[in-house]
Amino acid sequence: MRPLHQNFRLGLSVTSDIEWATYFDHPHYPLTLPPLHDGVEKQRHQVVIVGAGPIGMALALGLANYGVPSLLLEADASVCIGSRATCYSRRTLEIFEKIGAVKSVIEKGLAWTGGRSFHRNTEVFQLRMPHDENQKYPPMVNMQQCLVENYLLEAVQARGDLIEVRWQSKVTDAQIKSDKARVQVTTERGDYAIDADWVVACDGARSSIRQALGLKFQGTQYEGRYVIVDIELKSDYPTERRAWFDPPSNPGSTLLMHKQPDNIWRLDYQLRDDEDSDEAVKPENVIPRVASHLRMIGERDDWKPVWISMYKANALTLERFRHGRALFAGDAAHLVPIFGVRGMNSGIDDAHNLAWKLAFVIQGWAQEALLDTYSEERVFAARENLRHATKSTEFMAPPSHGFKLMRDAVLTLAPTHAFVRSLINPRQTTAIDLLDSSLNACPERSAEFQRGPRPGQLAPECALLLAGGRAGFVSELCGAHFTLLSFCAQESPPQAMHAALPGLANLPLQCRVIAQRGGDGGAAVDFSGDCFSLYDAQPGTLYLLRPDGYVAARWRDSTAPQASAEVVRALQRILG
Amino acid sequence: MTEQQLDELYTQACQTMTVLGAEKTELYLARLSLLLMQALDDPARIRSAIAEAAQWS
Questions:
Q1: Which residue of A62, A78, A327, A541 has the fewest C-beta atoms within 10 A of its own C-beta?
Q2: How close B18 gets to chain A, by Cα (Å)?
Q3: Hey, how many other C-beta atoms are within 10 angstroms of the C-beta on B21?
Q4: What is the ipTM metric for this complex?
């Protein structure tokens, strides 16, 4: 990190000269122009992704896993400045693993599992996120968004054979036709058009593609405004989420605090309705409030602000994420209030859901209708995320007198009446169940289970001994393909199921065996018995998993004569 | 009552007060208290709730 000009003593010097933090050497990438013919790029692309932010890069990396090339267009000359999104969920980390970007994030990021909420000076709630020894990743990892973007970019650059990034190339317009998508690109050295089979808008809240297509968000914009401040401060306080309601340091306000790597701390606080937004983000107005809070919580070291931004809660989504050859993901498709950290995390899930579906269509493994299920599933997920985040927002930033009154009642009762404490829970992001997805198959077979993940739920993580006795996890059995998880008593020759699927031999479909006891090698062994229990499995149980880790169908007893025909039908239903 | 049910009831009360507006909320809460007293039908518990609700720091 570069040294900063100003050091702020608690509550002392006040100045507007903040040098924004930079966490690595921010290279500026040059503008490149392709060969043109009549103002149109000669080469037609299969996939153009607008926006090389985290969602666009995750999508490009996901497509590359299936050998599908893509072109990323980015208006800026480098990855973002500042920390922006801070909290990365377990689901996001699992997806990062699939796209080859998890290692640096885990090494650099700060893992955490819980937090505390305070009303004035009293602790009123302890947050504990689900975590156990069967998880490969922690429930949450904190780090600055620019660092994550840089790690994703490194992964993108390592796939230079399939992914091209064009910097300083701003998309200004798009036309979607039945046979192609055309995007208009503006650069310092002239404008040109690109033709593509598919265009994916990952260009954020002010998406140029969304505007070009005349699409409108639906939902609510909240009045509550939050100032987001990153400060540099050395503190041994552990990584956890802390929230204060009406703290003595900032009476009437709600304040959040998170730890990030490199001695960076994130503070968010709500503005009063009578405060002016432009004034509120000026350092001379931010510093005293932060100073007051640090004093209250006993932080005595020097500190300095390194990033200040303003946030307004939106709960908005498009009605559909597919419009012909145009697809929408991340903030371009939906805006979620920050509480519960569903913004970036839901966008990464969008990219992961879309990557395999778009790749399957492009590779000719599935019908185009599969892309409609991207819209169906992720619009549903966006609405679920909005529902949870709205609840969170109503508690953190009450939108009316009634909500404020009830919240204050909860906060004053919480120290002595445990039953209200669940209402303080910040409802941190979790993977969204897709129980009504049109891709779920064989519900009557699923009903034969007592427990375990149903079609439309994520396959739960579990520790296993993999081939050769290596410690690993269920998720490592599943790659960029459909997976048939076959449970058996003792390791046996891999089930002949795959071979028994005529007409599907060329699909990316793999059979993986999980055995109760070890044998000659090849199978994963459920040494603890947890996996059989989590999946309510018995020898002969079969799970069909989608490439994004969701259960498509399951059979408690696949030795039944009709089982393999049902597996084929389930796959045909998905692929069309 | 599950956490989910409490959550839904909480939000329903908040939304009702939002529709009524701040001016009518006080009377609304008093009426709600009386209706809940009737529903609870347990003088001892109501008496202690009346006292507990008045205690906060």
A1: A78
A2: 5
A3: 12
A4: 0.97
Q: Do A413 and B56 touch (CB under 8 A)?
A: yes
Rounded to a whole number of angstroms, the distance from the CA of A415 to the nearest CA of chain B is 9
pLDDT tens, A518-568? 866 678 999 999 999 999 999 999 999 999 999 999 999 887 777 788 888
Contacts of A73 (CB under 8 A, 6+ apart): A48, A49, A50, A51, A52, A166, A169, A170, A171, A183, A185, A194
For an interface test with B, the pick among A388, A410, A422, A427 (most B C-beta atoms closer than 10 Å) comes out as: A422
What does DSSP say about strands A190-201 and A326-328: parallel, antiparallel, or unpaired? parallel
Q: Which residues of B touch A (CB under 8 A)?
A: 3, 6-7, 10-11, 13-18, 20-22, 25, 52, 55-57
Q: What is the pLDDT of residues A69-85, one digit of tens each?
A: 999 999 999 998 777 89
Residues 6+ apart with CB under 8 A from A526: A462, A464, A514, A515, A516, A532
Interface contact flag, B25 A405, Cβ < 8 Å: yes
What are A449's two structure tokens? 């289970």
Q: Closest Cα partner for A512 from A553, A482, A533? A: A482
Total number of domains constituting chain A: 3
For all residues of chain A together, what is the average pLDDT?
Answer: 91
| Paired strand residues for A327 | A200, A322
Q: Is the domain of A380 the same as that of A419?
A: no
Task: Find the closest chain A residue to B1 by CA distance.
Answer: A419
**pLDDT of res. A339:** 87
pLDDT band per the 50, 70, 90 thresholds, residue A3: very low
Q: How confident is the model over A171-215, as pLDDT tens digits?
A: 999 999 999 999 999 999 999 999 999 999 999 999 999 999 999
B21 contacts on A by Cβ (under 8 Å): 401
Residue A405 belongs to domain spanning = 396-424
- A303 found inside a domain: no
Q: Give me the total of CB pairs closer than 8 Å, taking one residue from chain A and one from chain B.
A: 48
> Are residues A423 and B10, on separate chains, in Cβ contact within 8 Å?
yes
Let me know whether A408 and A481 are in one domain.
no
The answer on A184 and A77 residing in a single domain is yes
Cβ neighbours of B10 in A, within 8 Å: 406, 410, 423
Among A residues 376-435, those touching chain B with beta carbons less than 8 Å apart: 391, 394, 398-403, 405-406, 410, 412-413, 416-417, 419-420, 422-423
Which tens digit of pLDDT belongs to each residue from B3-52? 999 999 999 999 999 999 999 999 999 999 999 999 999 999 999 999 99
Asked if B17 lies within 8 A of A402 by C-beta distance, the reply is: yes
CA dist B53 to A209, A354, B43, Å?
A: 54, 51, 15
CA B29 to chain centre: 6
Pair A473, A386 in one domain: no
> Which of A401, A412, A422 is closest, CB to CB, to B56?
A412
CATH code at position A92? 3.50.50.60
Residues from chain A that touch B32, judged by Cβ atoms under 8 A, are: none
pLDDT tops 60 at residue A454: yes
In a domain, A249, yes or no: no
Kindly state the helix (H) or strand (E) to which residue A50 belongs, with its residue range. strand A45-50
Cβ atoms of A117 and A424 within 8 Å: the answer is yes
B-chain CB neighbours of A416 within 8 Å are 52, 55
Nearest-CA distance B4 → chain A (Å)? 9
| pLDDT score recorded for residue A223 | 73
Q: For residues A69 and A201, state if they share a domain.
A: yes
pLDDT of residue A16: 46
